[in-house]
Recover the amino acids of this structure.
């Protein structure tokens, strides 16, 4: 496989048509080597328009998001070079590497110890120094390092807990996939004041849920 040709095709044929036009984001997709964060058995699929399994023996269902979803969420978050960022769900470390290329510092939280170690190893091999991968449950955020300028939830959640929203600085942004099958929305949430948030629905998609995600209230008849 011609890796650079495959990377170019991924950007031009999958990602640009998904309204990812920010030149900084497109440049990062060329510079951060996605193939270095894909398990060896799936290297040939690193640039394919699909989710790639990265699960461990203890959690076999985990997958990397499709490239176009990753890129669009990254674009919508609008990370700045002075930002401290929280990522919930480290996975293989690829999104953390993309975030770190734009941010001052990234804290990435992963509940699966095997995946957390995978992410650490991948980031170290890639020479990414401004990410700390923490092992733990990020379903309510990661208050130990709060507040954050930006938060990325790299999994879906039926609802956004107030605990996570309150870990944003005023002026901060959050991107997450919110809802349940079959109706999920990628949302951009901006904290505009102490008790005020502005939410924009960006696009619809369906991805796997965050472990221990807050559930929506259900009526019981």
């Amino acid at each position: 496989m011609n890796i650079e040709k495959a990377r170019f095709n991924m950007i031009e044929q999958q990602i640009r048509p998904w309204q990812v036009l920010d030149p900084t984001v497109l440049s990062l997709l060329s510079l951060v080597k996605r193939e270095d964060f894909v398990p060896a058995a799936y290297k040939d699929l690193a640039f394919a328009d699909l989710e790639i399994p990265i699960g461990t023996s203890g959690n076999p269902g985990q997958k990397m998001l499709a490239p176009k979803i990753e890129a669009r969420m990254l674009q919508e978050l609008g990370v700045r070079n002075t930002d401290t960022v929280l990522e919930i769900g480290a996975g293989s470390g690829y999104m953390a590497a993309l975030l770190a290329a734009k941010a001052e510092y990234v804290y990435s939280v992963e509940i699966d110890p095997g995946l957390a170690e995978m992410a650490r190893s991948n980031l170290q091999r890639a020479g990414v120094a401004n990410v700390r991968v923490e092992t733990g449950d990020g379903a309510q955020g990661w208050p130990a390092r709060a507040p954050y300028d930006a938060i990325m939830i790299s999994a879906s959640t039926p609802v956004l807990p107030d605990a996570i929203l309150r870990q944003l600085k005023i002026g901060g942004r959050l991107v997450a996939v919110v809802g349940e099958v079959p109706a999920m929305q990628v949302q951009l949430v901006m904290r505009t004041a102490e008790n005020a948030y502005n939410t924009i629905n960006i696009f619809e998609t369906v991805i796997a849920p965050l472990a221990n995600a807050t559930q929506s209230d259900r009526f019981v008849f």
